[in-house]
Design a protein that fits this description.
The structure holds 2 protein chains of 2 kinds. Chain A is mainly α. In chain A, about 80% of the residues lie in helices and about 0% in strands. Chain B is an alpha/beta fold. In chain B, the strands form 2 sheets. In chain B, strands 6-7-8-3-9-10 form a 6-stranded mixed sheet, sandwiched between helices. In chain B, a hairpin with a 2-residue loop joins strand 9 (about 200-205) and strand 10. Classes of the chains: A mainly alpha, B alpha/beta.
Chain lengths: ~240, ~250
């Protein structure tokens, strides 16, 4: 993975990445005290220190993380093609397969970093500002965040495939957001096809918490793996046939 | 074995432009000039050679490796400066070269400073590329092309945007690398003085086809690459006019 270090360096040298890392760390820190204030003002307990990380996670996996992932993928593929910087590395002894794979692995590491950052921030916020923060809550919260990486990555690979069809990052981002919204709407309007879509697994961690590893979750894991393999292959095929 | 061999390479874009049935080969130590007017298909051909574009037909071999099937082996001893390829403008000159250097095994970091010195960019190595002028960018791309100690260098319109001093330095550097280090070059340009000064052999590309090819030692007495070029371009125009009249 000679190029993985290159991709990671490029990502970290962008101001937007640093801003998004900061925002991700601040998000639970800002929401936590706000919730505590509301709880004490209105005298209700919607969630406590134990459940707070899961509330943040549900918001993050539904809206925040898919958006950040779409931003990252759009910029990595369509954005670099648009700026003609993709060719700067492609004219070196680096196969298109290695370049493609290193970009996907880099986006996976980026996603994992965001998840860990939000997780730690929400756990700390829950521990400091909210009541009833327990060790079991901490373990469940941590595992839930880590489990969420997998279905989000499946979504990311779908977005990578989509990014191969457009030649600018803004188009790729727009199509990604539209596709995501369409999938969300479809899960409500046509529940029969919902299971075929990766957004169905936005509640992936809940299934694991409620059921653990059973036949249904194992089957779903296999489905997501094959989904990743399919769109990775299709995306790579399109990428390898492109003229730059 | 030729350093570069093209066999019947054809690449057609949807707008009808491209190159058709191109064949030639380059031997070790040559400076081969690919000369042609704007829009002749020079960059298309260069992009095919480095596999940025896939030829519709034909085969391209670098040191015996097919560039499509064995890309990494083929490109390992090759340095490239292709028109339209841009560096990452949010990175510094040094960082851009560092990215490129990581793709060549056993390349020392000191080499980055060496090539930056060659192209006169040492003083700007920690400046972001977005603040560079066209000429400075071109110098950086030349540094990137020479970074890997290549034995074969592909240069597409390399002096675009360079000032007079930069251009003279560039021509001197290429001559020195060819003579002292035995580096082979393919140089695509529309500037006849570059070709006249540097090349041992040229091919003339017009409307996607090679219409003439000659080595310096094959030129008739008193003939230069320039006169050879002008004669062929005129002939090409006459042939085209006759074709149109026939149609």
């Amino acid at each position: 993975m000679m190029n993985l270090q290159n991709e990671w360096t490029k990502l970290l040298r962008k101001k937007s990445t640093i801003v998004l890392f900061c925002l991700s760390a601040l998000f639970p820190l800002l929401v936590g005290p706000a919730i505590q204030m509301m709880q004490s003002k209105f005298g209700f307990t919607a969630f406590d220190g134990e459940s707070f990380p899961l509330v943040i996670l549900s918001l993050a996996v539904t809206f925040y993380l898919p958006l950040l992932l779409a931003l990252c993928v759009s910029d990595m593929f369509a954005g670099e093609q648009e700026q003609k910087t993709l060719s700067f590395l492609l004219v070196r002894p680096l196969s298109r397969f290695k370049l493609f794979t290193s970009k996907i692995v880099c986006s996976g590491i980026y996603l994992l970093s965001l998840i860990i950052l939000i997780c730690l921030s929400s756990l700390i916020t829950g521990a400091i500002w909210l009541e009833n923060f327990t060790f079991s809550g901490l373990v469940v919260g941590l595992l839930s965040f880590l489990l969420s990486w997998f279905p989000l990555m499946a979504m990311g690979i779908l977005l990578v495939f989509l990014a191969q069809w457009v030649d600018s990052s803004s188009k790729a981002l727009t199509f990604s957001i539209l596709l995501y919204l369409v999938m969300i709407v479809l899960t409500y309007l046509l529940p029969a096809i919902a299971e075929w879509l990766p957004v169905y697994d936005n509640t992936w961690y809940q299934r694991w918490i409620n059921n653990g590893l059973n036949i249904a979750t194992f089957g779903r894991t296999l489905y997501l793996l094959s989904f990743c393999a399919l769109f990775f292959t299709l995306g790579y095929y399109k990428f390898s046939q492109k003229d730059f | 074995m030729p350093v570069l061999e093209l066999q019947n390479v054809t690449k057609q874009y949807k707008n009808g432009r491209g190159v058709e049935n191109i064949s030639f080969s380059i031997e070790q130590g040559e400076i081969f000039g690919l000369l042609g007017p704007n829009g002749a298909g020079k960059t298309t051909l260069m992009k095919c050679i480095v596999a940025l574009s896939r030829p519709d037909q034909g085969k391209i071999m670098i040191n015996g490796y097919n560039v499509i099937e064995n890309y990494e082996q083929a490109m390992l001893p090759v340095g490239t400066l292709i028109s339209g390829v841009e560096a990452f403008d949010y990175l510094t000159a040094y960082e851009n070269l560092l990215l490129a250097s990581r793709l060549y095994p056993s390349l020392e970091k000191e080499r980055i400073d060496e090539v930056l010195h060659w192209v006169g960019m040492e003083a700007h190595k920690h400046e972001k590329v977005k603040f560079f002028s066209t000429g400075m960018r071109q110098r950086l791309y030349l540094a990137a092309a020479l970074l890997s100690k290549p034995s074969f260098v592909i240069l597409d319109e390399p002096t675009n945007g360079l000032d007079i001093e930069g251009k003279l330095d560039f021509l001197e550097l290429i001559s020195w690398l060819a003579k002292e280090r035995g580096v082979t070059f393919i140089l695509s340009t529309h500037l006849i003085d570059e070709v006249e000064r540097l090349c041992n052999r040229i091919a003339i590309l017009s409307k996607g086809k090679i219409i003439g090819e000659v080595a310096r030692n094959q030129l008739a007495e008193g003939q230069t690459f320039e006169t050879f070029y002008m004669n062929n371009i005129r002939k090409g125009k006459e042939v085209n006019q006759n074709d149109e009249l026939t149609k």
